[in-house]
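Standup notes, structure subgroup. Blocker cleared on the threonine input:
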Amino acid sequence: MCTGRGAILGDPSPSTTKYLVTGACGQIGAELVPFLRAKVGKDNVIASDVKTSRSMLEGGPFAYLDVQDRDNMARLILENGVTHVVHLATLLSAVGERNPALALKVNIHGCQNVLELAAQHHLSVYAPSTIAVFGANTPRHATPDDTIMRPSTIYGITKVHQELLGQYYADRHGLDYRSIRYPGIISSKAAPGGGTTDYAVEIFHAALARGAYTCFLSGDAELPMMHMADCLDATYALMTAPREALTRTTYNVTALSFTPAQLAEAIARAVPGFAIDYRPDFRDDIARTWPASIDDSAARRDWGWRHRLGLDELVASMLNALRPQYEKAAAEKAAAAAAAKQQQQPVAAAA
Ligand SMILES: NC(=O)c1ccc[n+]([C@@H]2O[C@H](COP(=O)([O-])OP(=O)(O)OC[C@H]3O[C@@H](n4cnc5c(N)ncnc54)[C@H](O)[C@@H]3O)[C@@H](O)[C@H]2O)c1
Ligand SMILES: C[C@@H](O)[C@H](N)C(=O)O
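Run returned:
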């Protein structure tokens, strides 16, 4: 049996659209799921993952789904009348290098299951790709959409596979498959899941907690980046763009590029005395193979992509979002220390 709706991503009308989001509890899903629910109604977005959180359970429908389990994925799709799959379940670059066998299984089989079921049941698919599809012999500056793709990480290899397979299903089966090659995504809600660009989130927590950060990339490792607010806007813009406006299945998208040293300087302007030092590890070697900047002119031309946050706005947004939790923690710590001191005083006086 097919659900047979022939859904297209460009038609997000609340009455016909039902999203299944895989890997929904990760850095991007934790914000994309509420964002989509605000657009199409909470019951029309089924979140799924192999882990969960209180906010995910309270926010709307949630199902356990290991993307390697094709039968369970099929059951969820058919029982819920799913029309669109947003496929986020992936092992990122650093965790992928630590466990390549698992990354191959989750990333390759997960993507194959999504695409096969989508073709069979006439669903649409949005599945992000990444700058990790590029490699050491790709042009590093203003990297175009179509260029050399010989990645050095298992993550990058699985994402090239995803891009090619998505294109294949679009060509051979008319599948509405859409993808953005995200740069590093910077956000304040969920922690990043183990990538090379994670430093650009960790640094804000360290600045507020300790006023100092030891970076696992070198100071001059320039990479393309984007704030989550821009990531959500770009994602929804591509998902809802009219199909006839699109000239490709996978688009480069970026907002800005910076090095760890430049980010640290911008943070120090807002957190006086903030200091950074560098202890590069294997992730620095990965970063050296990725683009420093991206040409996203096709996205800007075809579906009107425009980013909103530059470096200073991004830094201000992250610090404003995170500061209350660190101020609360500091106040609680001070209150606990004062209470402990008070308890000790009568003992000291009696002695
Ligand atoms: N965050 C970024 O900076 C970034 C950049 C480029 C591309 N992307 C892409 O965006 C997508 C989402 O990335 P993210 O940053 O949210 O990743 P993440 O690591 O934060 O989240 C991935 C989620 O997948 C889940 N997962 C792992 N194995 C699973 C399995 N077998 N079945 C089901 N779920 C499983 C994890 O529990 C986790 O919640 C990925 O396709 C990634 O390649 C992310
Ligand atoms: C860039 C991206 O795909 C992810 N943030 C990683 O570093 O692995």
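Discussed briefly. Residues 92-93, 130-132, 155, 184, 195-197 surround threonine (ligand 2) (CB under 6 Å).
Next: hand off to the docking folks.
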